[in-house]
Each structure stands twice: as C-alpha cells, then as structure tokens.
C-alpha cells in the first residue's frame, strides 16, 4: 500500500517468510483475545493467549540464526549485523509482550506497572526503525 | 509525484508515535478523552492513504494512460482500498464498543480485522511461494 514488500523487507530487516509468520501469529492471537473476552467462564489464561506471539518470536529467532550461520561463510559483517538487528527487534517486542501479559494476568499485583513502562520498548523500537529507514534510503 | 521511502516512513512514524502516546495517556488515566478522539491519528492516516489511492486510481482516467500497464495494479489497488476500509470498520466498531455505544461480542468486532489479516496473509504467502517456485 504505502510500502512495497521489497521496501518493507529492506527496512524491517526481516525475510518475507518471517513477516508471514508474525502476521499469522497476530491473526491467531486476535482470535484468542476475542475468545478470552467472549467466553463467560472458564476464562483462558492470558499467558495462553500470548503463546502465538511468543512462538512466532522463537521461530523467527531460530530462522534468523540459521540464515546468519549460512551467511557467515560468505559475508561475515552482513551476517553479524543482520543477527544483531533482528535479535534487538525481537527482544524489544518480547519485553513489551511479556510486560503486557503480566499486567493483564495479574492486574491486582501489577498496579505499579503502568502502560507507559509497558510500551517503552516500542518507543525505542520506533526510534531504531527511523534511524534504519534513513540508512536504507 | 512519488514520495521517497524516508518521507513515507516519516509519515507513518509520526502518526504511530502520536497514536501510541495518546493511547498510553488514556490507558494510564492521565487524560479522559473519548476513544474516537484517541484514534484521531488513525483516522487521519487512513484518510490520507485512501485519498492517495483514489488519486492514483483516478490517474487511469487520463487520456494518455496506457491500459497495458494498468490491469494488475488496478486489482491490487482495489484490494488495498478494501483492506483500508476493513481496518477502518474494525477501528470504528472497536471505538463504539469501548465507548459502550454497542454491546456486540468482541468476536464480531474482530471480523473485519480477521478478513484483512487473512487477505494480507494470502498475498504474502503468494509472494513467498512464487519466489520459491522461481
């Protein structure tokens, strides 16, 4: 729409298959959220609802590691840079997901966990994406 | 006139940042605005995208337009327009639900989102498997 697939792959640093994986995880996650909200009782655990997102992060890390190991034989610098970038993005995403899940699962105990803190990894990610966009451009 | 990648990134970046800030302030109860107002950056961004799409599609009506290079892109642009409208429908029903204007199930609210994600998955899956076949 606004970006072509090629531009997205260049900008985000993820392969097309990884984007597909994350999108699929988002679809399953949204279905589980709807199920969690609509089921009267017994409610699904929030940790269970977040499983697709955690699984997508894990699989994406696995694929990136494999790709980087293969790439390391030909282009060492590119392989290390790619691995570092994808791991940084996935770590920030994972931190945000875990904090959000904890806030939703333990609402009484996690009162000090305010949403500004939960979303802060996303703010860092936005800055990093902006810097990367300038480099790609 | 085609926008450069940096300009397009900046456009989406600004709207995402403003939306995230407003969302956090609302969720932390620092502001007590209407949910429709919180989603204002989303409405604005979608309106800009729809306007850009309509302008591009209207370009077909020019007298010097070559129909040979337009068939594929028209289908694609119609799908983009449908996806944008589905996203808009999802955001509207979500806001109505959050404002308690309606009492529909969350599953019903999510139907446009699922349709949009399903379509995007099909398109992405098609490009993944086409690339592999090549």
TrEMBL record, chain A:
<keyword id="KW-0472">Membrane</keyword>
<feature type="transmembrane region" description="Helical">
    <location>
        <begin position="113"/>
        <end position="131"/>
    </location>
</feature>
<feature type="transmembrane region" description="Helical">
    <location>
        <begin position="12"/>
        <end position="34"/>
    </location>
</feature>
<keyword id="KW-1133">Transmembrane helix</keyword>
<dbReference type="GO" id="GO:0006874">
    <property type="term" value="P:intracellular calcium ion homeostasis"/>
</dbReference>
<dbReference type="InterPro" id="IPR019396">
    <property type="entry name" value="TM_Fragile-X-F-assoc"/>
</dbReference>
<feature type="transmembrane region" description="Helical">
    <location>
        <begin position="79"/>
        <end position="101"/>
    </location>
</feature>
<dbReference type="GO" id="GO:0005783">
    <property type="term" value="C:endoplasmic reticulum"/>
</dbReference>
<dbReference type="Pfam" id="PF10269">
    <property type="entry name" value="Tmemb_185A"/>
</dbReference>
<protein>
    <submittedName>
        <fullName>Transmembrane protein 203</fullName>
    </submittedName>
</protein>
<keyword id="KW-0812">Transmembrane</keyword>
<feature type="transmembrane region" description="Helical">
    <location>
        <begin position="46"/>
        <end position="67"/>
    </location>
</feature>
UniProtKB/TrEMBL annotation, chain B:
<keyword id="KW-0472">Membrane</keyword>
<feature type="transmembrane region" description="Helical">
    <location>
        <begin position="78"/>
        <end position="98"/>
    </location>
</feature>
<keyword id="KW-0812">Transmembrane</keyword>
<feature type="transmembrane region" description="Helical">
    <location>
        <begin position="9"/>
        <end position="27"/>
    </location>
</feature>
<dbReference type="Pfam" id="PF10269">
    <property type="entry name" value="Tmemb_185A"/>
</dbReference>
<protein>
    <submittedName>
        <fullName>Transmembrane protein 60</fullName>
    </submittedName>
</protein>
<feature type="transmembrane region" description="Helical">
    <location>
        <begin position="104"/>
        <end position="124"/>
    </location>
</feature>
<feature type="transmembrane region" description="Helical">
    <location>
        <begin position="33"/>
        <end position="57"/>
    </location>
</feature>
<dbReference type="InterPro" id="IPR019396">
    <property type="entry name" value="TM_Fragile-X-F-assoc"/>
</dbReference>
<keyword id="KW-1133">Transmembrane helix</keyword>
């Amino acid at each position: 729409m606004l970006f072509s697939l090629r531009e997205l792959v260049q900008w985000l640093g993820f392969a097309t298959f990884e984007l597909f994986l994350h999108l699929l995880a988002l679809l399953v996650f949204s279905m589980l959220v709807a199920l969690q909200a609509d089921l009267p009782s017994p409610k699904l655990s929030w940790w269970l609802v977040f499983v697709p997102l955690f699984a997508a992060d894990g699989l994406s890390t696995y694929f990136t590691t494999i790709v980087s190991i293969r790439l390391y034989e030909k282009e060492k610098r590119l392989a290390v840079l790619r691995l570092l970038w994808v791991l940084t993005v996935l770590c920030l995403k994972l931190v945000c997901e875990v904090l959000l899940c904890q806030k939703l699962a333990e609402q009484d105990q996690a009162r000090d966990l305010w949403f500004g803190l939960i979303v802060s990894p996303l703010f860092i990610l936005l800055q990093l994406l902006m810097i990367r966009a300038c480099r790609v451009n | 006139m085609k926008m450069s990648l940096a300009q397009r990134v900046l456009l989406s970046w600004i709207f995402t940042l403003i939306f995230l800030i407003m969302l956090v302030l609302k969720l932390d109860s620092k502001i007590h605005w209407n949910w429709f107002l919180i989603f204002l950056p989303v409405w604005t961004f979608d309106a800009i995208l729809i306007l850009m799409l309509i302008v591009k599609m209207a370009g077909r009506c020019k007298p010097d337009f070559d129909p040979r290079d337009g068939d594929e892109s028209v289908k694609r642009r119609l799908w983009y327009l449908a996806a944008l409208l589905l996203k808009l429908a999802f955001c509207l029903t979500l806001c109505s639900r959050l404002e308690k204007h309606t009492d529909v199930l969350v599953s019903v609210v999510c139907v446009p989102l699922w349709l949009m994600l399903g379509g995007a998955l099909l398109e992405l899956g098609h490009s993944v498997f086409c690339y592999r076949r090549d």
